[in-house]
Amino acid sequence: MAKCCICGKGVVFGHNVSHSNRKTNRSWKPNIRKVKVVENGTSRTIDICSRCLRTRKRAEKAENN
């Protein structure tokens, strides 16, 4: 499974716990997006989580203002 290349966020494992306290395995998956990034004049695709994508967009917006 993919990880965010900026913050390292990945899949987390745990349990569903029912009212009778039975525990079944489950996983929480991060919201990973493939984004094209230009670095040193070359473009490449990176896996980035939605939180880091939002932060990146805010930083770019602040940079332009």
Describe the protein in words.
This protein has 65 residues and is of the alpha+beta class. The chain has one domain (12-64). The chain is built from 1 helix and 4 strands. The strands form 2 sheets. A two-stranded antiparallel sheet has the order 1-2. Strands 3-4 form a two-stranded antiparallel ribbon. A hairpin with a 5-residue loop joins strand 1 (12-17) and strand 2. It is elongated. The protein starts with 11 loop residues before the first strand and ends with a helix.
Topology:
Elements lengths: L11 E6 L5 E6 L3 E8 L2 E8 H15 L1
Antiparallel strand pairs: 1-2, 3-4
Structural class: alpha+beta
Distance between the termini: 37 Å
Give the neighbour order of strands across the main sheet.
1-2
Total tally of structural domains? 1
What is the number of strand segments?
A: 4
Taking Cα atoms only, what radius of gyration do you get, to the nearest Å?
17 Å
Shape, per Cα inertia axes = elongated
Our estimate of the beta-strand percent is 35-45%
Major sheet:
2 strands, antiparallel
Question: What oligomerization state is this entry in?
Answer: single chain
Précis, in short:
The chain is 23% helix and 43% strand.
State the main characteristics:
65 residues; alpha+beta; two-stranded antiparallel ribbon; two-stranded antiparallel sheet; 1 helix; 23% helix; 43% strand
